[in-house]
Amino acid sequence: MTATVEGPDFIALQVTDVPAAAAFFERHLGLRRAPVSPPGAVVFATAPIPFAVREPLAGTDLSADSVPGLGVALWLRTDDAHRLHAQLVDAGVEVAGPVRDTPFGPAFTLTGPEGYRLTVHGARRD
């Protein structure tokens, strides 16, 4: 029998300022911390896949003049994309344009901690 991968099981963004990144996700996106996090990381109580911000792994250089995670698409789900978009704009968070219709529901992209581009989508309304 061949071993296979079932899908993503854990997602973490490597950042240089873990407390600031964790505060961004708590303050602006409403994530809550999991009861336990390993040293150098903050794990959030997200489902079905745990999400964290963590110190860079050995050999990772985040000081380069580029966009962190370029080429990786991280989509987060919300119950109301339009309301969250308005909240983020009001809070001064960099949002790349208005909410747009996608096959996955209304969506928009924002710039998160340390320049990560994050896409947020709401439920489709069929």
Q: Spell out the CATH superfamily of the largest domain.
A: 2,3-Dihydroxybiphenyl 1,2-Dioxygenase, domain 1
How many angstroms separate the termini? 41 Å
Q: What is the number of E strands?
A: 7
Strand order of the largest sheet: 4-7-6-5
Which structural class is indicated by helix and strand composition? alpha/beta
Residues in β-strands, percent:
15-25%
Low-confidence stretches: none
Number of helices: 2
CATH fold call of the largest domain:
2,3-Dihydroxybiphenyl 1,2-Dioxygenase, domain 1
Measured as a percent range, the helix fraction is: 10-25%
Major sheet size, sense and barrel closure: 4 strands, mixed
Name the average pLDDT. 88
Overall spatial form = globular
Notes on the protein architecture:
This protein has 126 residues and is of the alpha/beta class. It folds into 2 domains: 10-58, Roll (2,3-Dihydroxybiphenyl 1,2-Dioxygenase, domain 1); 67-126, Roll (2,3-Dihydroxybiphenyl 1,2-Dioxygenase, domain 1). The protein contains 2 helices and 7 strands. A 4-stranded mixed β-sheet has the order 4-7-6-5, with helices on one face. The chain has a 3-stranded mixed β-sheet with strand order 1-3-2. A hairpin with a 6-residue loop joins strand 2 (41-44) and strand 3 (51-54). The longest helix is centred in the N-terminal third of the chain and has 12 residues, at 18-29. The chain is globular, with a radius of gyration of 15 Å.
